[in-house]
Amino acid sequence: MTIRELEDQQLLRLREVFGERVSTVKADLIAHGRDEGYPDTHAPQAVVYAESEADVVAALRLARELHVPITPYAAGSGLEGNAVPWRGGISLDLTRMNRVLLIESANFSATVEPGVLYPELSRQARPHGLFFAVDPGAEASLGGMAATGASGTAAVKYGTMRDNVLEMRVALLDGRVLRVGSRAPKSSAGYDLKHLFLGSEGTLGVITELTVRLWPLPASAASMQVSFASVDDAVTATVMIIGAGIGPQRLELVDAETIRAVNFYKGRSDAEQPTLWIEVIGRDGADVATQLALVEELCRESGGAVTGRATTEAQRTELWTARHHVYYALRAMYPGHSNRLGDVCVPIAALPGAIAITQQLLREHQLHAPIVGHVGDGNFHLLFHAAPEDAATWERIALVSDTITREALRMGGTCTGEHGVGIRKRKYLRDEHGEALDAMREIKSLFDPYGLLNPGKIFEE
Amino acid sequence: MTIRELEDQQLLRLREVFGERVSTVKADLIAHGRDEGYPDTHAPQAVVYAESEADVVAALRLARELHVPITPYAAGSGLEGNAVPWRGGISLDLTRMNRVLLIESANFSATVEPGVLYPELSRQARPHGLFFAVDPGAEASLGGMAATGASGTAAVKYGTMRDNVLEMRVALLDGRVLRVGSRAPKSSAGYDLKHLFLGSEGTLGVITELTVRLWPLPASAASMQVSFASVDDAVTATVMIIGAGIGPQRLELVDAETIRAVNFYKGRSDAEQPTLWIEVIGRDGADVATQLALVEELCRESGGAVTGRATTEAQRTELWTARHHVYYALRAMYPGHSNRLGDVCVPIAALPGAIAITQQLLREHQLHAPIVGHVGDGNFHLLFHAAPEDAATWERIALVSDTITREALRMGGTCTGEHGVGIRKRKYLRDEHGEALDAMREIKSLFDPYGLLNPGKIFEE
């Protein structure tokens, strides 16, 4: 594939169509050349700030006409280089398309532009007694979350982005805009193109509008922190909690290393053991208290010891702060270090084995990397870190990360639970998907015959 | 497209490969030429009884070699002609692939062959404290349900077939077998081919194995029957029940006409008004009693009157028998009549309007057709019926059905909520999907360049 850089003539043409909405200011180019988690910068030659679907269509048409790569960009909160313009060209900035267009409370849905940040949607839904349930943590955009197939801590209850998008409008390279999915809660009318675009990371088209599900705000919630002698015991408790039909809103596992970091950062003295954070929701205080008692009983059966309990809003915030501050704790413990976030997902029953292997690898390679797991989903992250210039450690991190990913695949898992493929995970897709990867490539060629849509992502070149 | 019939030479070749597993017995051909809901029979020229994935692959390869159509068939419980071999050729019977291969209780999953009937899976899962949650009512096969994107009464709680398949093996026409999806609870690793095959009705490939989700058996359940002055009031109550976060297991609406039929059939005297059947589940009797009290309060706010209540297993069976006997009631009321089942789905808020238009159309055209709705999903069925030879009535049924479907589309709904496209719904896909239909055709061509996989379905020829 030959991708040309933008020539003066091409920039003129961009300016002709987009005027002030094109930027070639160096700071803009650099800002659009990186994300939260990918270490290298690949700057575009131009940034086009789309303000409407028509702008997106025009930009795609121009990319085709000029035969230059085009990569959609919004919050820049991706972790695998998903929005990094690997081959340069145009960065299509969608942050100005940030309007919540419609909240339909009787349909439990909202229609938004792709640049809306998800906390903003929840804020606007609150007066309707509703909220948006997918919470990846970072200030992510809904378009980016849909394009990545993102999820977060509440997926065990509400599902991932894939489960929470009803309908989308997607602009294709050839100028067509498809409406995929349906605002009806279910449909069996033909091929499911919605799910094809969800998680396709801008390699098939650009999402210009989304209708997403909203959920009723829980009337009551309560949380508990439980420490266990081993990860095995914590996962056994998790399986029993789900099996009892409790359906917790969050079920988060961290390892002893993580508790150590949080203790250091927050001046706490929690038991430095594998720990579950569990949040249940219900219709009132009595309901959640009963659920929490049941959770406690099941945890005790696996040898768990309750180390925290929260029934008021203030207590919950305090309890979850520890969980939410894992990243900051890590940064505080290792000032000046850069981070890399591992992300694999395995069948739940395989989780203790996967984490045991992970811990052994970390010991063998003398790495300290806290483990944070969305344990109800079999998904866990490793918070690798090292000084930016410490090449030897980064090499060991790459090796350990690679081994863990291959082990996850061997267990029937996936190389990425919620961060997408981006650049670094491309090499695992053959192992994970076998011949299905060829079918994916064939579909890619159908929608993007010239390889202009976010080239270098998902597929190895 | 030219599709040749099987010639003697071709039959010889089939027998060479499949021996006794090929049938050309007339009764077999006719049995494989129809389903539960499509009025016409289109017999295949041969039935191949696959006993393994290798048989499926061999049959697909032969279909390609001989250039004859091939249509998968299992329970034959489809309603739109989904498995009817419209263009003849080979009917690929999967009923002998009926083994539950694996139940992994700690993963809340089961792996099955496509011919397994879903009640059988629930039966085998019960000793593990689990069940399979998608229940379309008929004795459907799991492969067929996946291929149709089926759902049923419990979708409001557990989702549809699309939400309950984790992984599949799919045999393609070119002999490849793809593994799509993942046994990990979530993944963002590349294009979602699983959802592309789910609901593709055997037009892209043949499902040879499925790993599906199992759910914990509810510890306790209770039901309530509530009658309302209008469908509007019943839907208002539904939105309030969902909005209160109760998350009922079932939320079924029937119209006055249906209650009349059930009263006649079962010798009951329920109020002949729009009626909701609601089932809630919980951790114990007190939990479901509290939920039921809240449901009752919300229904009363919309003018609902409780006409039945069931807390014991025996009472629940009695209460739901009425709902489940709607079809039999109809048959008893109109002996000798044939049926046709309407199936549209709209955004929940549009449901009262859709049902009002439907009732008006039925009155205008002097048709009696009970309305049965999975109201929590915005999905409703019309139970049309007439004497088989009554051409004038069938013509009115076709007209009314067509008008309702187009109205549903106008409201942002879908032409089929859970029965698939099959033959009769093909003509609505352009209206429903616009240019996305062209993209679907392009994908069809990719996987089936000769139009041999279940030709005549989903797309108009």
TrEMBL record, chains A, B:
Q: Name one GO biological process term.
A: lactate catabolic process
Q: Which Pfam families match?
A: FAD-oxidase_C, FAD_binding_4
- InterPro entries tied to this protein: FAD-bd_oxidored_4_C, FAD-bd_PCMH, FAD-bd_PCMH-like_sf, FAD-bd_PCMH_sub2, FAD-linked_Oxase-like_C, Oxid_FAD_bind_N, Vanillyl_alc_oxidase_C-sub2
EC class name: oxidoreductase
Q: Which domain of life is it from?
A: Bacteria
Q: Which UniProt keywords apply?
A: FAD, Flavoprotein, Oxidoreductase, Transit peptide
Q: Does the keyword Transit peptide apply?
A: yes
Cite the GO molecular-function annotations of the record: D-lactate dehydrogenase (cytochrome) activity; D-lactate dehydrogenase (NAD+) activity; FAD binding
Q: Please give the SUPFAM superfamilies that the UniProt record associates with this protein.
A: FAD-binding/transporter-associated domain-like, FAD-linked oxidases, C-terminal domain
Boundaries of every FAD-binding PCMH-type domain copy: 40-217
EC numbers:
1.1.2.4
Name the cofactor(s): FAD
UniProt key word Transit peptide: yes
Q: Which family does it belong to?
A: Belongs to the FAD-binding oxidoreductase/transferase type 4 family.
- Xref: PANTHER family: D-LACTATE DEHYDROGENASE, D-LACTATE DEHYDROGENASE, MITOCHONDRIAL-RELATED
Name this polypeptide is given:
D-lactate dehydrogenase (cytochrome)
